[in-house]
Design the sequence.
């Protein structure tokens, strides 16, 4: 068994897309010399770094992150490889139809864009999943969708309306080959959370 960490580490250098989204802050509140231990205060937004969006992120009254059965966070998933990918080039329904033939599996979209994470162009130039592609994934009854990019607002609405959590900004996609993996995407258990930072792992048999 091999485990690949698909998570961007939390740090105070993480990029923020919207100005109203809180920045990540890590502050030492105890140290070895004075307190005989080390403690760090973490201040982080619910949609920071590698994270999972719940439907309540965009729909009032929709399910929240703590309301999901934990079985959802461990899924057989298909890695769909779209590398190399040009900036802004949408992942189309036709491309997805050529790769995804069976219903009911989680999906991991690999574009290679995670290497830009933390740079100014990451949110401006990523190759997005198209709205038609998102609609196809809904038709294929995908229970959990992960990508090494953000998602457009329209894709948020299409997938989250159907209760499909969005695993966003995964890391180390170059270590994934196209095919089946066991995906572990465990969000922080935040009461009434609209989303949560997550530790995301790929387990290869």
Sequence:
């Amino acid at each position: 068994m091999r485990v690949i960490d698909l998570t961007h580490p939390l740090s105070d250098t993480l990029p923020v897309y919207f100005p109203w989204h809180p920045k990540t802050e890590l502050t030492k509140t105890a140290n070895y010399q004075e307190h005989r231990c080390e403690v760090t205060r973490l201040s982080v937004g619910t949609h920071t770094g590698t994270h999972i969006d719940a439907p309540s992120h965009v729909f009032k009254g929709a399910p929240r992150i703590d309301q999901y059965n934990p079985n959802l966070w461990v899924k057989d998933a298909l890695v769909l490889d779209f590398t190399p990918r040009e900036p802004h080039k949408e992942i189309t329904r036709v491309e997805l139809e050529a790769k995804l033939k069976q219903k009911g599996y989680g999906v991991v979209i690999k574009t290679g864009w995670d290497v830009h994470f933390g740079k100014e162009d990451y949110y401006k130039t990523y190759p997005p999943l198209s709205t038609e592609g998102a609609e196809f994934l809904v038709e294929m009854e995908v229970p959990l969708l992960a990508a090494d990019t953000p998602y457009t607002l329209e894709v948020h609405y299409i997938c989250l309306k159907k209760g499909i959590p969005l695993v966003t900004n995964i890391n180390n996609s170059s270590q994934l080959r196209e095919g089946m993996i066991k995906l572990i995407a465990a969000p922080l258990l935040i009461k009434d959370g609209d989303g949560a930072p997550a530790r995301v792992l790929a387990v290869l048999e």
In short: Residues 92 and 133 are 5 Å apart (CA to CA). The chain has a mean pLDDT of 97. The longest helix spans residues 131-139.
